Amino acid sequence: MEAQGSRRRQLPVLLLWVNGLMTLGFAGARQQTELCNESLMLEKLPACGKSFEDMMKKVDSKKWCNLTEFIMYYDNFTQCTEREANNASCFWPNPLAEGFITGIHKQFFSNCTSEKVHWEDPPDEILITLILIPVMLTCAMITLVVWCSKRSDIL
After folding, report:
1. What's 67's domain CATH number?
2. Is residue 27 over pLDDT 50?
């Protein structure tokens, strides 16, 4: 009986110990101990932009809005900005990196506006046909069901 009482007193201590381990990151959570060196990151990001600019010179400027033409270059650019942010102990994306990336987008993709589709109704002849066909089929099916239900002697 005394052993159970001892275990009951040890249980809260054990729970507090496990909670402490999980809070400290024992469960696999990684805590960022270094502060973000924003000036280092802002110093290194232009190299990523320069590299992207050099690669984009290989692509015809008329094809800059076609992502399939430069997707690998953009992927390299994204990885470069992420690597430089991480090297400066900053998370990615962060407001400063996003501002830099937005500047690159303005430089290369400002003319790539998406064309909005203007929806129009079809001509009246087609619209009337598209409306009347389901209505007529519904009426025909109702008529068939009523007719078959009255002629139960055949079925």
Report:
1. 1.10.150.510
2. no
> Is the sign of the CA dihedral 62, 65, 66, 67 positive or negative?
positive
Compute the distance between CA of residue 123 and CA of residue 131 in angstroms, rounded to an integer.
Answer: 12
Q: How far apart are CA 79 and CA 48, in angstroms?
A: 9
Closest CA to 78 of 92, 90, 64: 92
Q: How many domains, in total, are found in the chain?
A: 1
| Residue 155: per-residue pLDDT | 57
Residue 102 inside a domain? The answer is yes
pTM: 0.53
Q: Which domain holds residue 66?
A: 38-110
119 phi and psi angles, rounded to 5 deg? -80, 135
Quick one: what percent of the chain has pLDDT higher than 70?
76
